[in-house]
Design brief:
This protein is an all-alpha fold. It has eight helices and no strands. Helix 5 crosses helix 7. 14% of the residues are buried.
Length: 165
């Protein structure tokens, strides 16, 4: 293909190359730039064109490859934005509240104060007028009781009950 015929192809099909890029989601300004760069690259490498009837297909593939390489290059160097993280709903606290509903009042109160309100053992022991060791034992029993309540409802516990019956 000679250069005059290539210039005619450019005039007739440039908008189709830009349209192809637009249809792939490329912004309009960038689509025009990439389309023009692809036609220029085709002009520079006109000797590589094997079938003059497929000039548009050839240039469109050059355009898509140029856009993809530009996109990859830019995305590699793109920085992260610092966006403040807004605190959401504390789902763990809601789950713990639901779990604690299965316990007696004293056990529930002990676990709530210690693990939800994060009250120090020393303060809890003084408030309850007992030693820290005694309070730790009560907390251990309350945790054990809670664990047993959940083990009762687990599929594993159900299967072991059925096998015993």
């Amino acid at each position: 293909m000679d250069r005059d015929r290539y210039a005619e192809e450019f005039a007739r099909n440039y908008h189709r190359t830009a349209g192809l890029l637009l249809s792939r989601g490329v912004p309009e300004e960038e689509a025009r730039d990439v389309a023009q760069a692809a036609w220029v690259k085709g002009w520079e490498r006109l000797h590589q064109l094997q079938d003059p009837g497929k000039t548009l297909v050839w240039v469109n593939s050059i355009a898509m490859n140029r856009y993809r390489s530009r996109y990859r290059r830019e995305s590699r160097h793109q920085g992260f934005e610092d966006s403040p993280v807004q605190p959401g709903i504390n789902l763990a606290a809601i789950d713990v509240q639901r779990m604690l509903q299965r316990l007696r009042g004293v056990e529930r109160e002990l676990l709530r104060r210690r693990y939800l309100e994060e009250e120090p053992i020393r303060d809890m022991a003084q408030d309850m007028e007992c030693s820290e060791t005694a309070l730790r034992l009560r907390l251990m029993r309350a945790r054990r009781s809670l664990r047993e309540k959940f083990d009762e409802g687990s599929p594993k516990a159900f299967c072991s009950k059925v096998s015993r019956d």
